[in-house]
From TrEMBL:
Family the entry assigns: Belongs to the cycloisomerase 2 family.
InterPro entries documented for this protein: Cycloisomerase_2 (IPR050282), Haem_d1_sf (IPR011048), Lactonase_7-beta_prop (IPR019405), WD40/YVTN_repeat-like_dom_sf (IPR015943)
Organism: Flaviramulus multivorans
Keywords attached to this entry: Carbohydrate metabolism, Glucose metabolism
Record carries keyword DNA repair: no
Gene3D superfamilies assigned to the protein according to its UniProt record, in alphabetical order: YVTN repeat-like/Quinoprotein amine dehydrogenase (2.130.10.10)
Family annotation (PANTHER family): 6-PHOSPHOGLUCONOLACTONASE, 6-PHOSPHOGLUCONOLACTONASE-RELATED
The protein's name in its UniProt record: Lactonase family protein
């Protein structure tokens, strides 16, 4: 008896200053790589970044507006989203949210506010008022906090404006305190935007928006030692470019980064022993201005959100070589964040 694979849900965060109305859902066929059945599941303003709770019972979405908000949604049995509550982020243009593995804390990065806000998560998935706020601005330099991620008891923050990746740790009262305002020296005006850590926490890879590079570093106590900076661009490309997102393959043998301008995905082969990278491909995203991208749960497909061309592109992933090949695309208004 042949069992047909069930399609899985893909949730899409968008900008709503055009035709979009909020968070959308698509069905993804993990055998064919085809997206279908587009529907609006939550009407909300500028949900430009969304993330799951670890058990996928809840979705947390920023509201990237001047006043800034973060909302909690419950996944209903029919896969629609029910709003639980909304809190202020105490900073303008929140652009990223992540949740810790225990589902007890959420952190929001405020791009215009230049700060991060931490929230306690209640048992029903609702968010408390902000429990802690860390402001990276000073009288000399404007902060643009762009992403933050928990790793065990640590919290890493990429600050594009301060050209730095901060590290916070927990104190005895379970509050976060600053451990380092720079874990690695970046090139001047690199603009760290997003980053990814290996599962063991021994390596970090930072994608730099302004420099169009990936910085690779290896853990050394509470700091990291630089491995190298790697260009994300083809050597022949001479136009403007702004890097966006970065992800490791599940086996951590390959690393991917998105280029807005060159409009490509840069593919790197990763040495799992020493953490070094070798660029093996730059492939067109078949769209304009790729923001967030994601690997599907099987690892056999990559999906790319092309904001300006209003489409999601689907690629086959050769799991042996890491290389991508274009498969198809689907139209959707202003996609910027993809979540399986």
């Amino acid at each position: 008896m042949n069992c047909k694979p069930q399609p899985i849900s893909l949730y899409v965060g968008t900008y709503t200053n055009g035709d979009s109305e909020g968070i959308y859902q698509l069905q993804f066929d993990t055998k064919t790589g085809i997206l279908s059945d587009l529907k609006l599941v939550a009407a909300t303003e500028n949900p430009s970044f969304i993330t799951f709770s670890p058990d996928k019972s809840f979705i947390y979405a920023v509201g990237e507006t001047e006043n800034g908000s973060i909302s909690s949604f419950k996944l209903e049995d029919d896969s629609t989203l029910k709003l639980i509550n909304t809190q202020k982020t105490f900073g303008g243009a929140p652009c990223h949210v992540s949740v810790n593995s225990e589902a007890t804390k959420a952190v929001v990065s405020n791009y215009l506010g230049g700060n991060i806000a931490l929230y306690n998560i209640n048992n029903d998935g609702s968010l408390s008022e902000s429990a802690q706020i860390f402001d990276h601005n000073d009288s000399i330099q404007k902060s643009h906090a762009h992403s933050a991620q928990f790793y065990k008891n640590d919290l890493f923050v990429a600050d594009l404006g301060r050209n730095s990746v901060y590290l916070y740790g927990k104190d005895q009262d379970e509050n976060y305190v600053l451990k380092a305002n720079s874990i690695i020296e970046l090139t001047e005006n690199a603009g760290p935007r997003h980053f990814t850590l290996t599962e063991d926490g021994n390596f970090i890879y930072i994608i730099n928006e302004y420099a169009s590079t990936i910085t690779a570093a290896k853990k050394a106590n509470d700091s990291f030692d630089l491995i190298d900076h790697y260009s994300t661009l083809e050597s022949s490309y001479s136009g403007d470019n702004s890097c966006a997102d970065i992800h490791l393959s599940k086996d951590e043998k390959f690393l991917y980064g998105s280029n807005r301008g060159e409009n490509s995905i840069a593919v790197f082969k990763r040495n799992i022993t020493d953490g070094t990278l070798e660029k093996i491909q730059n492939i067109s995203v078949h769209g304009d201005w790729p923001r967030n991208f994601t690997l599907d749960p099987t690892g056999k497909f990559m999906l790319v959100a092309n904001k300006k061309s209003n489409n999601i592109s689907v690629f086959n992933v050769d799991t042996n070589t890491g290389k991508l090949s274009f498969l198809n695309d689907i139209s959707i208004p202003s996609p910027v964040c993809l979540l399986f």
